[in-house]
Amino acid sequence: MSFKLMFSPFKLEWLQLRYPRENLESLTKEILAERLSKFYQEPKQEGGKDYSRSAHVAIRAGLNRYLTSDKVGKAFSIIDDPVFKTANKSLNAKLKKIKESGASKVKHHSSIQPEDIQKCYDSGVFGDDSPLALPAVLIGLMWIYISADEEKKIND
Description:
The two termini are about 40 Å apart. The chain has two domains: about 5-100, no CATH class; about 115-155. It contains seven helices and no strands. The chain has helices spanning about 5, 15-20, 30-40, 55-65, 85-100, 115-125, 135-155.
């Protein structure tokens, strides 16, 4: 998935709208850190509601991955580089605000029922007879394991 598609909720026009003469890929570390300090405060869903804490962290991780990719080739990390300390403090402040507002509650889903797993086998989604069905089984089993592990942690 491309960076621009991944960040389509923000349309990465954020930079173009506020700083029309700047190009993300050519910003210096110092300028990028300054822009990120502002950017981290603004992402919202279409209804104006804040994204989850994990979504904000994923945005930063995705942006870091893009900037350090072969395509862009930045030799620094916006997560670890000391130049981005203020920007990361800005993100942490946003995460704290989301947590304090109660919007960071984890939404747990019910466990997958054995009947539903059987339906996956019966319909051919799970199985070992096609190149797509076997990976689906592995992914499904991982989800079941992770779900069971999380449920155990909640109950303990």
